[in-house]
Design goal:
This protein has helices at residues 46-53, 75-78, 97-107, 112-126, 141-152, 171-185, 207-211, 230-237, 250-262, 289-298, 313-322, and strands at 8-17, 20-30, 35-39, 61-66, 69-70, 82-85, 159-163, 189-191, 194-196, 199-204, 215-220, 223-228, 241-246, 270-274, 277-282, 305-309. The protein is an alpha/beta fold. It has two domains: 8-232, P-loop containing nucleotide triphosphate hydrolases (Rossmann fold); 238-322, 2-Layer Sandwich (Alpha-Beta Plaits), CATH 3.30.70.270. Helix 3 (97-107) packs across helix 4, helix 3 (97-107) packs parallel to helix 5 and helix 4 (112-126) runs antiparallel to helix 5 (141-152). Bound molecules: adenosine-5'-triphosphate and magnesium ion. Adenosine-5'-triphosphate (ATP) binds at residues 17, 22, 40, 42-48, 87.
Amino acid sequence: MDKRPPAITANQLTKRFGNFTAVNQVGFTVKTGEIFGFLGPNGSGKTTTIRMTLGLLKPSSGSVEVLGIRVDGNAARMRPRIGYMSQRFSLYNDLTVMQNLHFYGAAYGLRNTLLEERIEEALVMAGLEGRGKNKTRDLSGGWRQRLALSAAILHRPEILFLDEPTSGVDPISRRAFWDLLYHLVSTPVMNADKKHTVTVFVTTHYMDEAEHCHRLAFIQHGNIIAQGSPAQIKSEVMRGQVLEIAPSNAVQAVKVLRDARESGKLPVDEIELYGSLVHVVAPEIKSHEKTIRESLKNAGIDPGQLSIIDPSLEDVFIACMKN
Ligand SMILES: Nc1ncnc2c1ncn2[C@@H]1O[C@H](COP(=O)(O)OP(=O)(O)OP(=O)(O)O)[C@@H](O)[C@H]1O
Ligand SMILES: [Mg+2]
């Protein structure tokens, strides 16, 4: 059992804008030292939840504690111990790499030798040694994200909030960014002369990134609809089995199978295109295999290989969002 107090505890956190409820009674606990992923479609309430957690937005009701501090009214006390990479880009494009780091370091209260040391370390971590004089706007998206992450941790925060840190970044750069995150959570930091384990709270749309989180929460229309480790979510939340089909024409196969479902011949839950494959989800998928093969053959499509597979997080996410 982990006896450390949780890094973040949200209780019935709610935000209304006029009559519209953007975040509805959201509750979650983030353990110290974990990477916690917050997933949801556009407009589902991720940024609003982060802003309430950081004390930047007052909840309509509910409460949140960060590092054991109740955020309401105490945000100033908690802020030196957290880092935030906001969704809208936080670096100044007109400044050089070095000037951005100086700006953030000074804003976090770092001075003199300590500031210089931390900037040197940040440049190494971001892989930007020797590029301190480059204008930030000239860096590619992936390098800018790494620089923004390095800037957000100059003051060695205990919790790092990252709001879609890798959106619009290519897969190789995303991988490099995640390697940095793993490195961060596995390396204790010194803050206020004490050693701390780093915790990461990250929002993302990328399912491959979600697989890399220790635990996840799915949010939809402001409500948390699933929560747990990726393995737990896959085994507990997903009620159906997934049949993967490799037909000769996947796009056409989806259409044919959906028509069969419409007509009542194929009572399954999901029929989704996965690149050149098709995933069909139903509680007892084996009992539908014959109908699937026949429907495809009748439409002149070779059904190819049919195999029951473990659901991916994407299967689970799509199933959850449709319920
Ligand atoms: N200040 C505000 N006033 C009114 N409505 C708002 C305000 N801020 C957010 N909203 C609304 O609340 C909902 C949730 O927004 P939020 O930015 O939290 O979503 P999100 O999950 O972060 O989306 P995205 O993936 O696009 O970043 C949206 O419908 C948004 O339009
Ligand atoms: Mg957002």
